[in-house]
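Technical note accompanying the year-one report. For the benefit of new consortium partners, we illustrate the data format agreed upon in the data management plan: each record pairs a sequence with a structure-token string. No post-processing was applied to the example shown here.
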Amino acid sequence: MTKLSIPYGKKMREFSLPNGWAADIIEPKAITPLQNPREAVEAELRGLKSQYSASPNRRRAAIAINDKTRPVPHTLLLPVLLDWLLDCGYHREEITLIIATGAHAPMTPDEFTMIVSKDMTRQWKIVSHDAFDEQNLVDLGMTSMGTPCRVNAAFAEADLKIVVGNIEPHQFMGYSGGAKSAAIGLASAETIRANHSMLSREGTGPCRYEDNPIRQDVEELGRLIGVDLALNVVLDESKDIVGVFAGDPVSVMKRGIALANEQFVIPVDAPADLVIASPGGFPKDINLYQAQKALRHGARAASHNAPVIIAAACSEGVGSEGYQTWMKDIADFAEVRRRFGIEEFRLGPHKAMLFAVDAEHRDIYLVSDIPDHQVRDLLLVPEKSIQHAVDNFAERWVAAKKKCGGQFRPPRIVILPFANATIPMLRR
């Protein structure tokens, strides 16, 4: 039997395929990590000093950093960035780090060490954004697509606005990174709702940038906010840095996208009869809200009705009470699509629609730590292990072939160990 393993939380989960069966393992292209990423960050920032130095009219700096659901290497990037800011003439007490949570729950101070060092929490001012805290939001106008630009006041009122993040494919926004850390990460719930309500429009999807309405709305939000500087990285599947980019947000995106595409867009010869996908382990499978992206990408490798097995620990459960509540008493994904089409767009329920796009015509088996009844309420099939799911599929496959009386062939199986950052592209 063929022994395999894929990430699950902070560990690996093993499973086997039946004798005579094989699988294509589709992973991001191997790119040699930077030997000295700190030097690379320093080199990117060095030439920008004169452009961004402190002055009587530029004293306060704010830095948007990603929350615990994103694998950004803050412990490497931030010390270099903060030293650079001090060297540029900013004072420690005038620099604020703001955790960009988007519509996620604000991080509490005792959680800050999940993303930065303990020394940093003592030495620097760090606060968490709250998309629902109206007193700490400010209006900055509206985009041409009708999205209100309502964002974190502390960030908007800073003299120098910096975003830190990573660039990788995003299931409907095209790519993460750039101005998104502020335009969505530090936005009001209203702003996020308006932007994400375009997720069904033509042009949305992974690896689309110039013609993607959601992503271009983010760029416009970034201009309204006045984001000055982006420091972004591209990571490999081991979360090592393969590229560093600093400068104005749009130029950073274009440079980073070229490397991200080289690494993450993988040609596939033919659609699969079964896809087994992991988001890539912690923190990308911290909850189902995040892990859903593995299905979005995994389905791209599957034939029309082929089942998908998702292995995601989901140590923090579903990740959205609004999504769970909205799904109560819904019978099938066809009803999800019908209701979503007639109701006002809401964050949380939008995750149901994203599931429906890929799950309406196929079974989705979820191996997770979420209680079985909650998984069923979300119209997914709970499985106790990857092995159990594979064995059940094998029984159904053999039985179906015998019933048809056709010549037996092993199924085509595709495995995506890092599905959140892998974009299968079927060859035409």
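Partners are asked to follow this layout when depositing records. The mean pLDDT is 94.
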